[in-house]
Design brief:
Length: 349
């Protein structure tokens, strides 16, 4: 027989499922179709201290859904990675390490998104960045003052970006970065009929995309809360994905949470809900990539000593007790055993 859920667990699950379903209805195309996987609802349960901790991140090479623009995607990727490498709160991990870790994921797991997340967990990653050029086209919009407005053509370039939260497996945030340049009507009609746009115009569009793309990533990473994972358990010691440069200190306390229930989101992506609190651990020693922590025993609440009564009060209470029916003894609730195991989540207190 499966264990009975607590009302609070059921309510939390229903709320999360309802939010995911609502977001799924609002999703569009491209990366936006995966907006239903946002992990912002998970972020609300994190400690605010996690904002300032150094996060491990992989930026996957950018792709292009527009023929012939893969070199431009590589150009944007190169510039953005160079700037990410200068950020103090980011530790960039080589994408090849993620590829190697993914090759070690059991073949029985066939979903490429789930394989990516499992591999990222093995490396102790917090975030994975993905992006794709999704559009290069001509649009028209009205310009000028009222009464003298013109239907002006513009050449548009669009880059869809997504940040994957490794712990939940969800998209922490998605965004679409756009740049546009005014062109003349003759060139606009030629592009609309299949001609390739002026390469110089495309270069200008790429240049305009780079800076706002970086600003978007920086802004979203500031909102992302750090969390780590339990890699191994040896007695009352836990090996964690906490590095020497994470920003935590020896002796700091961390909360350990179970990895919650795995569900399928509105877009078909597998995501993990927040799990229940298991206990607390204290950092013992900090390593270059991992650190050891010890389990903190749960606090023992001492029962207050009974009040000492005078002889008169004792006699009065005795008479009152005899007048009352003896209540049924309450059943003793055995505390659930605390079990630490690999895959559990750690967050700062």
């Amino acid at each position: 027989m499966s264990p009975r859920r607590k009302p609070s667990d059921i309510l939390r699950l229903l709320i999360c499922l309802a939010l995911i379903s609502v977001l799924a209805l609002a999703s569009g195309c491209g990366f936006s179709t995966l907006a239903s996987d946002t992990a912002k609802y998970v972020g609300e349960t994190f400690s605010s201290k996690g904002d300032s901790l150094r996060k491990r991140m992989v930026a996957l090479p950018f792709t292009s859904g527009v023929e012939g623009l893969k070199p431009k995607a590589d150009e944007i990727y190169g510039q953005l990675v160079a700037k990410l490498g200068e950020m103090d709160n980011i530790h960039l991990v080589d994408p090849s390490r993620l590829t190697d870790a993914e090759a070690m994921v059991p073949k029985e797991i066939t979903d490429p998104e789930e394989r990516l997340v499992l591999a990222a967990r093995k490396l102790g990653l917090n975030v994975v960045l993905r992006a794709q050029i999704t559009d290069l086209s001509v649009t028209h919009r009205l310009t000028g003052i009222y009464g003298m407005r013109e239907n002006t053509p513009f050449l548009n370039l669009e880059l869809d970006m997504a940040l994957v939260d490794v712990i939940s497996g969800a998209f922490f945030d998605v965004g679409s970065i756009k740049s546009n340049l005014e062109i003349d009507e003759v060139k606009a009609q030629a592009v609309a009929m299949g001609a390739k746009p002026d390469p110089k115009k495309v270069d200008e569009l790429v240049k305009e995309l780079t800076e706002p793309s970086m600003e978007w990533v920086e802004e979203k990473l500031e909102d992302h809360k750090w969390s780590g994972l339990v890699l191994a358990v040896e007695g009352n010691r836990l090996l964690l994905t906490v590095a020497r440069d994470t920003g935590l200190n020896q002796g700091d306390l961390l909360a350990v949470q179970a990895l919650g229930e795995k569900i399928k989101s509105g877009s078909g992506r597998m995501v993990y809900l927040p799990g229940k609190l298991i206990g607390k651990v204290r950092l013992l020693e900090l390593g270059q990539d991992t650190s050891w922590a010890e389990v903190v025993p749960p606090e023992v609440v001492e029962k207050p000593e009974p009040e000492k009564l005078s002889d008169e009060k004792l006699e009065g209470e005795k008479m009152g007790d005899e007048a009352k029916a003896k209540p049924e003894p309450e059943p003793k609730l055995e505390p659930e055993p605390v079990v630490y195991k690999p895959g559990q989540v750690v967050r700062p207190l």
